[in-house]
Amino acid sequence: MSNIMAAIGIQQLKKFNKFAVLRKQIAIKYDKLLSLNQNIKFLNRDYKNVVPHIYVVRIKGLNNRDGLREAMNKKGIEIGVHYTPNHLLSFFKSNQTNKLPITDKVYKEIISLPIHPDINNSDIENVISTLEKLLPSYTNNAN
Q: Among 16, 46, 55, 119, which residue's beta carbon has the most beta carbons within 10 A?
């Protein structure tokens, strides 16, 4: 690590407690707003002991994650994909003796919503409302 990167890291660490509180508040707000959506399934969360660095949800019946990502991006909202299953990583691809259909299904249904200290309540509400408007076009089990 260079001295410049170390200096930046030290300054960022000084803000850790503030950022941790903000990230937890954002995640809790997402939880509250998304809890009414029957298509959303939450991962287990422990906000008491863990600071969420990403906010992952499962969208039951999601059939076109890339299309949803593109549509959200066109609305100015970037969503991510994290947690690629090990059996899909290049290191393990040569050993495909065991099929993992449940893992494959869940992986295709997970997305990460924006979570960073600069996002505000209005931004969070916009993310949720945009996602909920778009979901019927990208799920098998639209409400």
A: 55
Q: How far is CA 94 from CA 69, 86, 91, 115, in A?
A: 29, 12, 7, 35
Q: Which amino acid is at 81?
A: V
Return the number of other C-beta atoms located less than 10 Å from residue 34's C-beta: 20
Question: What torsion do the CA atoms of 99, 103, 108, 111 make, to the nearest 10 degrees?
Answer: -160
Structure tokens at 25: 């508040």
CATH code assigned to 3-137: 3.90.1150.10
Helix, strand, coil: what percent of the chain each, to 5? 50, 10, 40
Sheet holding 40-42, edge to edge: 40-42, 55-59, 110-113
Q: What is the β-pairing status of strands 55-59 and 110-113? A: antiparallel
Domain ranges of the chain: 3-137
Tokens (6 digits) for 131: 């996602």
pLDDT in tens, 73-127: 999 999 999 888 888 888 877 766 778 899 889 999 999 999 998 999 999 999 9
| Distance, CA of 49 to CA of 70 (rounded, Å) | 34
